[in-house]
Specification:
Blueprint: H1 6-13, H2 36-44, H3 48-60, H4 67-80, E1 100-101, E2 104-105, H5 110-117, H6 123-135, H7 139-151, H8 158-167, H9 175-191, H10 198-208, H11 215-228, H12 235-245, H13 252-266, H14 281-292, H15 295-305, H16 317-334, H17 337-347, H18 356-368, H19 375-384, H20 391-403, H21 408-427, H22 439-451, H23 455-467, H24 474-487, H25 490-502, H26 508-518, H27 523-536, H28 551-555
Antiparallel strand pairs: 1-2
């Protein structure tokens, strides 16, 4: 970073790139005495509070601070606010507690205090203060300061006008009033002989997104003016145009057309960062593709991403995740599963770490193209990604495995997967949020085990219902009875009816009747079986489904 005019340059750059990348590697203070050199060191190291304290100490000592150092300090405060910048990789909220809060301007802040202490307030000082006000939401105050600047017979620079144009929609209510204020600012730029730059037009396009129906025609006119002045639009320019034309409630035809025109314009081009909003283009374009279900346009957007180093325009890891998540969601909806799996292997996990919803989209794609046999493999990926404690995702996976019957090989792999899921419920997740047993999850696991002929494990699951205070479904009891009949196991059949009775299932009498009809029981077995039902209190002598078949009628010849 150049030593001279350092902060004037840096403050201009905050419109172009994130300020965190400008942080120096060393953060240690070397100069301890009260001096202007110590002030400049603290400014260079972005020590906002320490710099303000040093400035105050210099004034208290009667030391005159040079105009350049004073302006450097003002630039620093207006860029970061009354706080030191975040120096790690944690996300930093745009609207933080500072001296401007959501349009509420707090008086006696350091920016204004130091501005008022300046012996000479030049264009640079006014520009820093106005842009700081706009950045932290004091839009009306910014326009008032600009008026004061004009009254002092000073002219604004292009950065000041860019900030005011972006703030214009915030100080007017009606769409026409917003646009009239923007036009007035543009006329003042012309009168003051200030040449607009790319960020001026981008600020204009961004402001037009808040100007309703008149924005469409004016946005196209703005692009024409950019070309006439030899200013090439950046990705942020096209992102704003898409934002103007694309509305979720509007017909999709026009939305797709404007996207196609934009993609034709940018196809094959390499872009570099010129505006902080450049990083929004790809995720916004992919959102339009997803909403309109236009897979061909999505491929064009992704092809542009692969040109040169355009991938750098995706933004941070969070924005990259949004882009790839939308793309993967669209692929799962629109493409054949073979194509989806090809992209799955290409993107995951090197480029995209899917969230639980992304994995649910994949499961639904497997279901659509009848490739549920891959569920056990996908479950391994889910576990590696740490999504195995997401109940909605686990329930979706279990329900797909339990819904239909498959070949013995597939059912065996499903059973292994279901037992692995069961182990998660049983062992918990330590510090992670553990899964909690639900009747649906227990039913699906039991159904999968029954389909794979894992009768003992299924029987253990049925007993687990009572332990976990859950009630099995009548359909599950029917599945159990069918499995027991296939193995001709009357003892388990009678126990099944007793378990059904213990849960007070309405279908217990019919289930008991079916057991008596399906299995040949000895007189002793019948007696023990019916006596057990009486002890459970689930039958009524006066209500029989069919005379001679109800278990209590079987007791009559045996009763002393």
């Amino acid at each position: 970073i150049p030593k001279k005019k350092t902060w004037y340059v840096v403050f201009n750059l905050f419109e172009i790139t994130q300020d965190r990348c400008l942080m120096p590697e060393t953060m240690e203070l070397c100069i301890e005495e009260v001096s202007e050199a110590a002030l400049l060191e603290r400014i260079m190291l972005r020590k906002v509070k320490a710099a303000v304290d040093m400035y105050d100490q210099l004034l208290q000592a009667g030391t005159t601070v040079s105009p350049d150092a004073s302006n450097d300090l003002l630039d620093l405060i207006c860029l970061y606010g009354d706080r030191d910048p975040v120096q790690d990789d944690k996300p930093e909220a745009e609207d933080v507690v500072g001296y401007y809060l959501c349009g509420l301007y707090l008086e006696n802040n350091n920016a204004e205090r130091i501005f008022n202490l300046l012996p000479e307030r030049d264009t640079r000082a006014y520009s820093a203060l106005i842009r700081g006000m706009v950045k932290y939401g004091a839009h009306v105050k910014a326009f008032n300061t600009y008026t004061d600047m004009l009254n002092n017979r000073l002219t604004a620079d292009v950065h000041t006008f860019n900030a005011l144009i972006s703030a214009a929609p915030e100080v007017r209510e009606r769409y026409t009033e917003k646009w009239d204020l923007i036009v007035d600012l543009l006329n003042q730029m012309n009168e003051q002989k200030v040449k607009p730059n790319l960020l001026t037009f981008n600020a204009l396009l961004k402001a037009l997104r808040r100007c309703g129906s008149l924005a469409r025609a004016q946005s196209l006119h703005t692009l024409s003016e950019m070309k006439a002045m030899g200013i090439a639009p950046s990705l942020a320019s096209f992102d704003h145009v898409l934002g103007i034309f694309y509305k979720a409630a509007s017909p999709s035809q026009g939305q797709t057309d404007i996207l196609q025109e934009v993609m034709t314009e940018v196809a094959g081009r390499t872009f570099v960062a010129q505006d902080p909003d450049d990083v929004n283009f790809f995720s916004s374009a992919m959102r339009i593709c997803l909403d309109t279900k236009d897979i061909e346009a999505a491929y064009k957007v992704h092809d542009l991403l692969r040109v040169g180093e355009n991938w750098r325009m995706l933004g941070d890891s969070f924005q990259q995740s949004i882009y790839y998540g939308r793309m993967f969601n669209l692929l799962c909806m629109m493409e054949h599963i073979d194509v989806v799996l090809k992209w799955y292997k290409e993107l995951i996990p090197s480029l995209y770490y899917p969230n639980p919803q992304g994995m649910r989209d994949l499961l639904q794609a497997l279901d659509t193209d009848n490739r549920l046999d891959m569920i056990p493999q996908i479950w391994k990926d889910i576990r590696r990604m740490g999504h195995d404690n997401k109940s909605d995702l686990v329930d979706e996976l279990l329900s797909l495995m339990a819904r239909d019957k498959h070949s013995p090989e597939i059912q065996e792999s499903f059973a292994v997967c279901a037992l692995d899921v069961k182990s998660l419920y049983e062992q918990g997740q330590g510090a992670r949020m553990a899964l909690e047993w639900t009747a649906t999850a227990m039913t699906n696991i039991t159904s999968v085990l029954l389909a794979a002929q894992k009768k003992q494990q299924a029987w253990d699951m049925l007993k687990l219902f009572k332990t976990k205070n859950r009630v099995p479904s009548e359909e599950l009891m029917e599945e159990f009875l069918a499995s027991i009949k296939s193995s001709n196991d009357p003892q388990h059949a009678m126990e099944l009816v007793q378990i059904s009775a213990s849960f007070c299932l309405p279908s217990t009498p019919k289930l008991a009747e079916r057991v008596l009809q399906a299995f040949e029981l000895s007189e002793e077995q019948k007696y023990d079986y019916c006596l057990g039902l009486l002890e459970l209190g689930t039958t009524d002598v006066n209500s029989t489904p069919s005379e001679g078949s109800h278990p209590l009628h079987l007791l009559r010849p045996l009763t002393p």
